[in-house]
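Write out a sequence, fold above all:
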Amino acid sequence: SSPTANESILRFLLLPSQVGIVLLLEFLNSFRSFGLRFLLYNYITNEFGIGDTQAGVILGIKGFVDIAFGLAGSILVDILGVRRVSVVALSVAIIGRSLLAFGRSRSS
């Protein structure tokens, strides 16, 4: 028979703490991908004076690159291991977000 709701919750709570960390990171990553897309659109159109069509193209390219890097990243994880790929990916993300946060025009 299938477990009751209470049994399922208890089983979940008995999982190693790393599972909770992974789930939290997955939630934050999903929020970053889907929840902040509207803010990114407003940011690039207002801060950099980019038109709607250009912003759509940029966000479309971003979506394609996200998929391509996801596929490439999964292959690299198999070859190099999770830790190495995670460190490189997070470093690139920090650099990219820093450029976005501190850039003030199309040329800087």
In short: The CA atoms of residues 48 and 107 lie 10 Å apart.
